[in-house]
Amino acid sequence: MIRSEILKEIAPILRDQLVVCNIGIPSQELHAIDDQPTNFYMLGTMGLASSIGLGLALSQPKPVISIDGDGSVLTNLGTLPTIANNPANNFILLIVDNGSYGSTGDQPTYAGRKTSLSKVAEACGCERVIECSAENTGTVLQEALDSGQMTIIVCKCESGNAKMPVITMDPVTIRDRFMSAIEA
Ligand SMILES: [Mg+2]
To answer: Ligand 1 centroid vs 69 CA: distance in angstroms?
Structure first.
């Protein structure tokens, strides 16, 4: 399975949740599959979906799911100790680990070689870390939501991108409708 197939499968779970989505093709895919006002698409901040998601989870009570990538987490590795030491039980970090920088041409990342992001997360002090196959992502994500505990999910999948249109929505519109959805 590739990322877009996982997103299609988990879209019904994501629909009612606050979602912060990784920059580039992941956001384009989620937007095309099931655009929701509860989705916040990163348009210019590589590596910060997890940081923004954690901050949002700490500052209000609704569940927050950050959809991140392996390349993005490797770009901002400081996010994992920050998450571990400032836990929010309404926060789920879903790392879609396809072993590549998908948005820039599928160059391989170290997560597809010797580096295990689940082991890095555990070593940083994250207490609930689950590595799963692409096929099990929906089940693991639902269980994480039901658990009421902060969970880091590392979903191992194949490299590849779906052909999706770019997001033409104005960033200010994305921000404003997301802020309204948080307050609703
Ligand atoms: Mg990747």
So the answer is: 5
Q: Domain 3-183 maps to which CATH number in 3.30.365.10, 3.90.226.10, 3.30.360.10, 3.40.50.970?
A: 3.40.50.970
Spatial separation of the C-alpha atoms in residues 8 and 58, rounded to whole Å: 28
Amino acid at 39: N
Cβ-contact 29, 3 below 8 angstroms: yes
CA distance 108 to 112: 7
**Ligand 1 centroid from CA 61, angstroms:** 29
How confident is the model over 82-125, as pLDDT tens digits?
999 999 999 999 999 999 998 888 999 999 999 999 999 999 99
Tell me how far the alpha carbon of residue 184 lies from the centroid of ligand 1, in angstroms: 33
